């Protein structure tokens, strides 16, 4: 399985927060156990670390908050884990979500020891009862099969079996209120009423507790390309809707024929919201939006229609690319999940090449600049992070091999091909991009990237597209 990759935004700093766990379901690809002091990891609460389920045992992960957190793996299989302090077990938490519409999407929320999951392809809404065991509110391994209404997720858990309930599912392709088709987001109020963005039916519906059908709240064709919803605090009839196609966030009153307000403007005169995806509210009613197309997070203060950029890609490492989901911990640190982070050469996917195991593609690529200098070659091999490998070469740039400009493209192809061939889940993710153009969007590189304005060569994007074509033709 792929490691979840999350960025922590705390104060003015953006930090990598990479989790490691052992995955028994993929014994040929076992990740190392957590290293609390390893570079790149974040540990905010050593006494209450997040715990991940490995199918038989609980392993302590790097604690990114003490209140609650969970993640979804970008494939048809995944883990749902949530850790909550024992004195906060009944706290309602809307947690971070990673989603890909080309495979399987789960939108979920946690409330009162239950997980609510909306399955995009299978057209189902599920309620899973989670046991509390030594601070672990719930952990479940799930798989989802097909679009058949009888194909329910399989839940494999530690300890006491959890209760699985199907609240709503697709029994036909009709638009009846008893059915769902491609639900993309859910939220839940204090009375456990569930609000579902039913995308294929271009509507928002409410399911009350123990209901056998939904209640129509909003119906509009503009809901055909929406991503996320959030109930408005202190309101019983308003909701935020993130509309990817319309380039804005709608504030919509239930029953209205159109949104009452559209949030689109940002205090950056050059860019309005673009392909915005996930949203989260802080306790003060400020709305945070993952402005995916602009590689940034934008905050709209309560009662304001002009957004403020609170985090963006500033050409530093770690980079800040394609944020898709947001979450706060109890200390109001903001966590961001990035789309297609796995395509970065810094992504922690070890590769076997030339008789060595390289921690990342970046390690291998930078070491090839000193292929005839054994000391520097092995020094790079032993560095803990890709950033260190990148910086090391800058220090000894004068010793770089003389033919580098002639061979660097072939070396990049070799390293990236090994990465996607040796990690099936990464290969699956790359192939899921279909025939779309892949761009390394960065201001500080006009050769491997697009220069930030589209004038760059984008050689890394070209490399990935060539590898995608090769993999498609050599199954």
TrEMBL record:
<feature type="domain" description="NADAR">
    <location>
        <begin position="340"/>
        <end position="471"/>
    </location>
</feature>
<protein>
    <recommendedName>
        <fullName>NADAR domain-containing protein</fullName>
    </recommendedName>
</protein>
<dbReference type="InterPro" id="IPR037238">
    <property type="entry name" value="YbiA-like_sf"/>
</dbReference>
<dbReference type="Pfam" id="PF08719">
    <property type="entry name" value="NADAR"/>
</dbReference>
<dbReference type="InterPro" id="IPR012816">
    <property type="entry name" value="NADAR"/>
</dbReference>
<dbReference type="InterPro" id="IPR011042">
    <property type="entry name" value="6-blade_b-propeller_TolB-like"/>
</dbReference>
């Amino acid at each position: 399985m792929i490691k979840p990759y999350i960025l922590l935004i705390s104060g003015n700093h953006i930090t990598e927060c990479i989790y490691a766990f052992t995955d028994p379901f993929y014994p040929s690809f076992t990740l190392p156990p957590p290293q609390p002091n390893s570079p790149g990891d974040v540990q905010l609460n050593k006494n209450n670390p997040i715990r991940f389920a490995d199918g038989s045992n609980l392993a302590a992960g790097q604690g990114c908050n003490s209140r609650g957190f969970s993640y979804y793996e970008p494939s048809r299989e995944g883990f749902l884990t949530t850790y909550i302090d024992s004195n906060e077990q009944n706290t309602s938490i809307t947690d971070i979500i990673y989603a890909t519409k080309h495979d399987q999407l789960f939108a979920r929320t946690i409330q009162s020891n239950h997980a609510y999951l909306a399955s995009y392809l299978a057209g189902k809404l599920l309620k899973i009862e989670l046991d509390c065991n030594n601070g672990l509110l719930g952990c479940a391994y799930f798989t989802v099969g097909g679009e058949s209404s009888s194909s329910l997720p399989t839940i494999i858990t530690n300890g006491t079996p959890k209760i699985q309930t199907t609240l709503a599912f697709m029994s036909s392709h009709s638009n009846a209120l008893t059915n769902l088709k491609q639900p993309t987001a859910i939220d839940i109020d204090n009375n456990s009423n569930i609000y579902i963005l039913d995308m294929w039916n271009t509507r928002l519906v409410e399911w009350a507790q123990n209901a056998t059908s939904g209640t129509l709240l909003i119906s509009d064709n503009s809901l055909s390309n929406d991503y996320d919803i959030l109930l408005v605090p202190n309101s019983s009839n308003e909701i935020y809707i993130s509309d990817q196609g319309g380039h804005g966030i709608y504030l919509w009153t239930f029953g209205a024929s159109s949104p009452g307000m559209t949030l689109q403007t940002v205090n950056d005169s050059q860019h309005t919201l673009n392909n915005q995806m996930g949203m989260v509210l802080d306790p003060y009613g400020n709305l945070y939006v993952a402005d995916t197309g602009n590689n940034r997070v934008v905050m709209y203060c309560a009662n304001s229609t002009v957004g403020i950029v609170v985090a963006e890609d500033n050409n530093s490492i770690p980079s800040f690319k394609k944020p898709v989901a947001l979450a706060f911990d109890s200390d109001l640190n903001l966590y961001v999940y990035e789309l297609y982070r796995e395509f970065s050469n810094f992504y922690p996917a070890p590769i076997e090449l030339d008789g060595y195991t390289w921690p990342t593609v970046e390690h291998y690529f930078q070491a090839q600049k000193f292929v005839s200098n054994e000391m520097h070659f092995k020094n790079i091999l032993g560095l803990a992070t890709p950033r260190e490998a990148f910086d090391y070469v800058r220090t000894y740039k004068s010793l770089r091999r003389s033919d580098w400009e002639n061979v660097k493209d072939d070396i990049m192809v070799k390293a990236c091909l090994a990465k996607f061939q040796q990690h099936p889940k990464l290969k699956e993710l790359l192939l899921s991009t279909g025939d779309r153009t892949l761009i390394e969007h960065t201001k500080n590189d006009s050769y491997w990237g697009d220069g930030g304005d589209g004038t760059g060569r984008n050689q890394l994007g070209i490399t990935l597209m060539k590898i995608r074509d090769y993999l498609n033709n050599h199954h």
